[in-house]
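Q: What would this complex look like in 3D?
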Amino acid sequence: MINMTNTILVIILLSVLLSLASNRLSALVRIMALQGVMVSLTPLFLEHHSNLGSGGLIFFQIMILIKGLLIPGLLFMAVRKVSITREIEPLIGYHASLFFGLVCILLSGYITSRLQVSLPAGHELLLITAITTLAAGLFLMMGRTKAITQVIGYLMLENGIYLIGTALTKQSHTLYVVEFGVLLDLLVGVMIMGIILHNINHAFDDVDTTLMRRLKD
Amino acid sequence: MESILSFGVALLVAPLFPGIILKVKAFFAGKKGPPLLIKYYTLVKLLRKGFVYSTSTSLVFRMGPIVVCATALMALLFFPFGGVAPLLFFQGDVIVLFYVMGLGRFFMVIAALDTASPFEGMGAAREAFFGTLAEASIFTMLILFYRMNGSLSLAGYFTGPEAISQTAPAGALLLLVIVALFMVLLAENSRVPVDDPATHLELTMIHEVMILDHSGPDLALIEYGSFCKLLFYASFVAMLIYPFHQFGPVLAMALFYGAVALVYVAIGITESIMARLKMNLVPKYILTSFTLAFFAVILSMGISQ
Amino acid sequence: MNYFFAALGLVLTGGVAALIFHRQFLFAKGFSLLLTVAGCALGLASLALPSDGPAADWSLTWLQIFPLSCSVDSLSAFFLVPIFLICPLAAVYNIGYQDDAGASLKTMVGVFFLNLLLVAMALVVVAGNLLTLLLAWEVMSLSSFFLVLYDFKKETTRKAAYLYLVFSQAGVLLISAAFAIIFGSTGSFLFAGAATLPADIKLLVFFLACAGFGSKAGVFPLHIWLPHAHPAAPSHISAVLSGVMIKMGIYGIVRTYLLLGSQDPLIGQAVLVLGMASGVLGVLYALGKHDIKRLLAYHSVENIGIIMIGLGLGMLGATLGNPVMAGFGFAGGLLHVFNHSIFKSLLFMGAGAVVKATGLLHVDDLGGLIKQMPVTGRSFIAGSVSISGLPPGNGFISEFLIYFAAFHGLSETGANLILVMLAIISLAVIGGLAAACFTKVVGIVFLGEPRHEELRSVGEAGSWMSLPMLLLASFCLVIGVFPEPFINAVFRTVAQMVPALTVDHVLVATVGTNLAWASRLLLLMVLLIMAVRKAFSLRKEVARGPTWGCGFTRPTVRMQYSGTSYALSIVSFYRPFARIRTIWSGIDTIFPKQAAYASRVDDIAEIALHRFLVSPVAFVLGKLRWIQHGHIQLYIGYIIGTIAVLLLIFFL
Amino acid sequence: MIEFIFLLPMMTGIIALFLPVNLGRGVLVVTALLHLQVCVMGWMGKLEPIFGAFFGRSPEGMLVLLVTSFIFLFIAMYAVSYMAETSMQSEPIFIGCMLLFLGTMSMVALADHLIVLWIAIEATTLVSAPLIFINRSKRALEATWKYVLICSVGIALALLGCFFVTLSMDVAAINVPLTFTSLNAVAERLDPFWLSFGFIFIIIGYGTKMGLAPMHTWLPDAHSEAPSPASALLSGALLNCAFLGVYKFHTLMHLAGLGSFSSNLLIGFGLVSMVVAGIFILRQPDYKRMLAYSSIENMGIIAFGVGIGGIALYGALLHLIHHSLLKSSLFLSSGNILLGFGSKLVALVGGLTRFLPKTAVSFLAGFVGISGLPPFGLFISELCIIFGAFQAGHYLAAIVFIASLVLIVAGMAQIVTDMSFGGGDQVEILVGEGFFRVMPPYVLLAASIILCVWLPDEIYQTIINTISVIGGTIHG
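A: Here is my prediction, written as structure tokens for the whole assembly.
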């Protein structure tokens, strides 16, 4: 089982690095779909989650559907609609971003080793992945100009937080509320962002957030 | 009784002394000069004359001479001529007196401004300005006097065993004060080097220009008032030089008026040998007097402790 | 306290009635005036009643936990007198002053806020604990802010009101800080706790409160708002603001001092130094100003300085165990509070009459008004004599007491001696400069020839306006000539205020009598000389003609000496403390057509405030506005940065 | 059935999305009335929670709930008139979202479960976004984008914080429901490291929503670009809800013996917010932004007061009530000004006293109130906070507090006097003053005055109950 978990986690890490290096939006969305599926799968392979009831299984299926299909689908439609295919001028270049991702992994490892928390065996990598994903999400939001990329960054941030949640907490006292919350949040959040995205494109003829600097002092 | 007499004498002799100044100046100029009683003649002449009022003036213009004269007389009421107890005295009367004279100046100045004459306005401005500085100098002296004998009245300064004079303890400091007070005297009474009463150019005058429009008895009142004021200051200087009260009243009076005459002579000499200062140097001049007085006060701190 | 509160109730009703009935202009005016005067009369009367006067108490709990209480002691009673005396006179004056039925609502709003101000001031004075004082203080600031804003169409007025609001808010926060420290160590809102503070905390409390109250009083260098705000308001309001309201700052300082009961000489020394600075610089800037009302406002700074000198001497004397110095210092300061309220409101009313008649404020535009406005002119001269501290005006009486205190302080040693000496010299300089300044105002505005033809046709102020002025002018003289009851009353107040202080009653009585006789003697002398002059003027011809032009044959009224030139040489003597700026067009041709010259005197406190506080702060804040630059990416960066910083703090 | 308090507006909100305009307006006002009524019933203790594991009646929540419900009623009345005047597009969406917004905010106030609270706060972001967005102008779009993105990031971080708080339970091997009630009971046994660690993320997360600097960046944009009724709700109600999140965790920290840590954070954030607000209020060219920055300032004051504790805590809760009343009143007045002058720029607005006299009075009175002058309640609350700060010995912080208050009054006074009295000789007023757009600000102001003169014992008792949990007392 542990090998399985680790495999998934490595895939997630890879997807993070890829997303940092990718300049094509459609590729980015595909990566996010993959990452979403993997993130939703992670809890299933963890030891203390193994005794899932049937309700739990259904829940995770829905989760995979949403994270792996619905949201990427929405994003895909958005990308099509705004008809831009690539991030042209990132605020931080791709090589630098990739380098940042690597540094992030290193730092996450350091932090994980420093945190005085008794993690179950094999969870170190989970925590490393989680923190890296979270940091990379924030990084994408800061380092890219296109509004869609920022939405994707936000998704990654949520993925990271979700992973941290699964890594650190016992399932017993949350009663799926956490997952439910994250899902709802993601869903509605992305839908709203999608609507705004659409309107931004409509109003500004672009989804470049550098154009949105009217409101300042 | 003595007090009333001494006050009466002072009133009588006040116009005499300016004659001395004129005599001294004439002597220095190698001339014969006007008679000693010239000022009495002037007063009588003025009192006989009628009035001329400018159409610009109002009631204030008429009040001016009255207040000037009244305040000067009031100052004399409190002065212990020759160490003889004055008619009136109380703790704090010096403050009252200098403020009363301030009132005189106030009315003098506004009466001058009432004429709407640019020259009189100029004189008024100068009078007001130099007055503020002289006042500071005088109050600094009062500080010294208070520190010397703990009194706040003219009678307290100059009568009784504690009287302030050159011969008193710490009297040496008074030398500074005498010089300072003499300088203030010249400034306050519009003498050379601050003002030249004999000048003929209105632009350079202070006191004389302010009374250009006064006439007849009004002018007489102002003149008499300024004689009294001059006598007040001269007596002040004289009393600081020597404690006359230790002699009998008559002798004291005689000696005292001799000393006063000397002060007037000194004024006359100063007027003869000095030129009038440039107007912008006058503040510095009065400030010098203030500095001397202040210096004396500082020294007194060292001596009395 | 029932009568007292009834009095305040009447006044407040008067204000509210004015608002309600503003459509019936005359009725509203008359009705509110009636209530205000009745209320003030009742208020004055209540001070004499045994159940209401000193030592009457009243308390209430507000919002479940906050205690409010009022009590009248002798100090409160003393400060209540000017409030109940000057405000109704201002209200009477206002009947004639604001007679434009078209601006009825505006006028009535003014009446409302004036009455509210009156009530608030009365409450400030009787406040019995920290909270009540702050509450009343804020109401006072607020109502006076709206009064300053009265002529809101002028930009200068808005600026003045703005400045005033900022200063009064800063002031009240400083006062709150001082009170908070008292609250902090006692845990109660009561005044009584202040006495139990440690000595160094007492100093801190006093200086905070002094800065807060001082900014209201107009103590240098916190006076900056005052010369802007007082001229901006209508004159009857300026009269109340300058005559009464700024005294609340003095009340606060005295009250804090008494509450703390600190024996640190530093307090007295500081008050003394502040007083000297305010006094000398206040009068100096007054000389340099040529707008009548602004000039009067600077004289308020000066007189606050004199009051502070008196109080400082009193505090120092109390610390040093010099009862004469202490008693006379306090008495002089307090009496000057009362006297200043009389002559300053008189002068502002006079200025208001001039402004109403001519519409002009600059002294160099006016002239010769005493012929057209004899009552105003003569009252103004009486006020000028009083404010210059000259006998027989009332200002002299209080200044004399302060001098008396100062001279008795000369027996001290060291730094205290130097300070006392400086105090005497400053008083002398202040007196001289004030006289110079008021000769300027009287001479240029009321005497001489009118500088404009239109000024020849102005009329005297109506009787609603003249009556208060005449009353106040006669108060000035009455106090000057019959000072004994006032001196005795103020000494009684001081004795109850500081019971430890024993001033020789005989000495007080003698000083009072002597001053009285000196004033009367002066009047007698004047009468005597008048008689003499009369005797010499019998059957004399009186000729009239133009002023002697010293040979110049075609004088014009523009050639009169102007206020600017009158004051310039004096002000330039004090150059480093008064910044003089001159604007001169220069002469470049042989026959110049027109040349312009102007000079203005700037307040160093204002310059310093701009240069060292406002500009740097505005510069730094302006740079910091970059924070909100619009980049969403960096906004997210802020969040991450904050996390990083907090985590670093957490782990380190 | 206390859940009814939030279910009612949520249901009517969803229904209103599909109703015709006129009916929708009616539903809005009627729901607001009903909601207030239900709230009062909740106050009287007539309603008990059904899902006790998730919802409860905490005193602080009830306080926020009542304030929200009260101001919502008047904002709803205003909104009806405002919408009629502006002929708003997609009005059903606006009405529906207003109601949903009310519902989610009520849910925040009633939430007792960590995650339910989190969900509710996140939901407020999502349902309020359309309110800002409703004009669909470029500026509104930009504001909404920033609002949604920044707040979502913040809220996500708050979720992370919640995980750490949960972890502190796991580490200490405690197994209780994730509700504040049960956590408070075992607070002393929670792992202090993870609890503090979590609190950092929570204060940043909810602080973003609350508008604490430097996470406040979205606030001036969103509050100024939203239509005035929405701005009034955002400032008057939403910020309180976010504050509630911070406050509940602060209570937990305090009970766990980590009060000084959370207090210091709150004091720090409070002061930074006030200073930042001061920077931007000075010479602010846009009056709605000025009001928005003033909200940041007041949230800073509240955070500061809570951090100080003692009497300052009492002051902070009073401040919360009065700030909601005054700020929403100010935003409503500013809405009238915006309608009348058609511009948010101070420079283009002048002479309110002549052109919009009633609004001028309410605007000025609101300014007087927000500056902390009597007879409005912020006077006493700010005083309590200053008194508390000195009592607690935070001299330096108190000095910064006072300095920034002066700075802010200086900034606001200039703008308000200019707008009310200055400039503009002849201005054409686009929309005059209607009764329903003048009355609500007056009522809100009057409420503040009344509460400053007479505070009902129930409210007083609720405040006391709230603060007594973390040792806030009135007398030292």
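A: To summarize the key features: The first helix of chain C runs from residue 2 to 20. The beta strands of chain C are 56-62, 66-72, 542-545, 578-584, 597-603.
Q: Very helpful, thank you.
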